[in-house]
Write a structure and sequence with these properties.
The structure is a single chain. Strands 3-2-1-4-7-8-9-10 form an eight-stranded mixed beta sheet, sandwiched between helices. Helix 1 crosses helix 3, helix 9 crosses helix 11 and helix 12 crosses helix 13. The protein folds into two domains: 2-194, NAD(P)-binding Rossmann-like Domain (Rossmann fold); 211-442, 3-Layer(aba) Sandwich (Rossmann fold). It starts with a strand and ends in a 6-residue tail after the last strand. A hairpin with a 2-residue loop joins strand 5 and strand 6. It contains 14 helices and 16 strands. It has 448 residues and is an alpha/beta fold. 40% of the residues lie in helices and 15% in strands. The longest helix is centred in the middle third of the chain and has 32 residues, at 201-232. It has helices at 10-21, 33-40, 51-60, 70-74, 96-111, 128-141, 162-167, 179-188, 201-232, 237-244, 279-292, 298-321, 348-358, 371-378; strands at 2-6, 25-29, 64-67, 79-82, 88-89, 92-93, 117-120, 149-152, 171-176, 195-200, 329-333, 362-366, 385-387, 400-403, 422-425, 439-442. The structure holds nicotinamide-adenine-dinucleotide. Residues 6-12, 29-32, 35, 83-86, 97, 100-101, 104, 122-123, 155, 157, 159, 277-278 line the site of nicotinamide-adenine-dinucleotide (NAD).
């Protein structure tokens, strides 16, 4: 099937490349010409494990191309997927990119006799596809739905795992407003033998937000308990967590006596909070929609409040344990919001570094792939930060090392000579006695 994807970022590109390798003819459209040039030279503009190889494969089959010209992208396409950003700005979801893409697709629909199904891949609040998107297309095309199709196919991939997630999803949600679009989505995902659920677009939209909101709830819940453990003293929250992880309702015992060890348990490990381009904005957006409808949204309020304060927890514990932070030489390891990506949107490290600077610390930072994006996101204060290519040779100069992203290479810190230094394990990836010589501090644990 010929597919046009509008918006070629973390979601659009992975979707396009994966669909192409499954046998569809894909054109990815982006209005940033630099992205288009880079992709047509075989270089992804984002960091994602396995993406360069898959892009090469997709291009070799002749089934993948990128363009800045929407009309040529839509030429012959049966389905147009919108995968543009939906940031949360000033208390509302900024739908300007979605509206713009819908209008441009609508203008094309107005000029063609072919039936095109427009499917939302972007995360949008319930009622967006069947009202906002529909109206934009109707106005721009001069045609009334169902002269074109409408669908919503939420994306659940996780950056850092995006290819694996897209190629082997746990379920595919086929949201539709008309049977032609449902048929189109069925054909698109025919190569995937997984659970497929069909529902109206509003349900599909809410499902995506509920998914992220519930995971965010888990993270904030364990973080609140971890902060309590630290305040009580004499408790390491990881002892508590180990016990929680053995509750068979979280971690079923299999017939062979082993544990299932479901991934959901990783959301029950305390840390410096959730970040990224999805959880913070999606929880805020859902809360805003509820409040607009007159609901108090107490739970999501608490989830966000706890999360906002969590990076500060790192700085507060260090401040207390070291009796002040002014002038201290601090090395922050990990800038991406999670390992496996160069995405720093809403990264905890952004807040931590800014707070450390405001305390007058000398801050050095490292990340295997996200330093460039971090520098840009920090803005003018970036000049006050030292960006390192090699963190290991800098350990000697640091008084404090903060482990803020769980990149596997930082496990090697346990082999460094840390005597006389303080190590803050912001992701609880190390065990206290594995870091010889250092004063070990962490979320959910006071120094002993
Ligand atoms: P992104 O910012 O990485 O990419 C969006 C791209 O769209 C940009 O390259 C931009 O240049 C392009 N664009 C914007 N308007 C355009 C237009 N009119 N025509 C052509 N190109 C246009 O965003 P992303 O992280 O890929 O997220 C896209 C959507 O997917 C969002 O709604 C997000 O919430 C959702 N989502 C993201 C993830 C994730 O992990 N990043 C996971 C699931 C869902």
């Amino acid at each position: 099937m010929r597919v046009c994807i509008v918006g070629t970022g973390y979601v659009g590109l992975v979707t396009g490349v994966c669909l192409a390798t499954k046998g569809h003819d894909v054109t990815c459209v982006d209005h940033d010409p630099a992205i288009v040039v880079s992709l047509n030279e075989g270089r992804p503009h984002i960091f994602e494990e396995g993406l360069p190889e898959l892009l090469t494969l997709a291009r070799a089959t002749g089934r993948f191309t990128a363009t800045a010209d929407l009309e040529s992208g839509l030429d012959g396409a049966k389905i147009a997927m919108i995968a543009v950003g939906t940031p949360f700005v000033n208390g509302v979801v900024d739908l300007s990119y979605v509206r713009g893409a819908a209008r441009d697709i609508g203008a094309y629909i107005g000029k063609t006799d072919r039936h095109i199904c427009v499917v939302m891949k972007s995360t949008v609040l319930p009622c967006t596809t069947d009202t906002v998107v529909r109206e934009e297309i109707e106005v721009a095309s001069g045609k009334r739905f169902p002269a074109f199709g409408l669908g919503m196919n939420p994306e659940f991939l996780r950056e850092g795992n995006a290819i694996v997630d897209f190629m082997g999803p746990d379920r595919i949600v086929l949201g539709y407003e008309d049977s032609a679009t449902l048929d189109c989505l069925e054909a698109l995902y025919a190569p995937w033998a997984v659970d497929k659920i069909r529902m109206r677009t509003r349900s599909a939209e809410l499902l995506k937000y509920s998914n992220n909101a519930l995971l965010a709830c888990q993270i904030s819940a364990i973080n609140e308990i971890a902060n309590l453990a630290a305040a009580i003293g004499g408790i390491d929250i990881m002892d508590v967590v180990k016990g929680l992880h053995l509750d068979k309702r979280w971690n079923p015992i299999l017939p062979n006596g082993k544990r299932a060890e479901p991934e959901i348990l990783t959301y029950l490990i305390p840390g410096c909070g959730f970040g990224g381009s999805c959880f913070p904005k999606d929880v805020q957006a859902l809360r805003a929609q509820g409040e607009q409808l007159g609901l108090p949204m107490r739970l999501l309020n608490a989830v966000l409040e706890i999360n906002d304060a969590q990076p500060e927890q790192v700085v507060a514990i260090l401040h207390e344990e070291l009796h002040g932070l002014g002038g201290r030489n601090i090395l922050v390891l990990g800038l991406a919001f999670k390992p496996g990506t160069d995405d720093v949107r809403e990264s905890a490290s952004l807040k931590i570094v800014k707070r450390l600077l405001s305390h007058g610390c000398k801050v050095s930072v490292h990340d295997p792939v996200a330093a460039h994006n971090f520098h840009r996101a920090l803005g003018p204060v970036a000049d006050a930060v030292t960006f390192l290519d090699d963190w290991k040779s800098h350990i000697d100069q640091a008084e404090v090392v903060i482990l803020a992203t769980k990149w596997p290479e930082y496990q090697q810190i346990a082999k460094s000579n840390l005597s006389g230094k303080t190590l803050f394990d912001g992701r609880r990836t190390l065990t206290p006695n594995a870091v010889g010589g250092a004063k070990y501090l962490a979320i959910g644990r006071r120094a002993v």
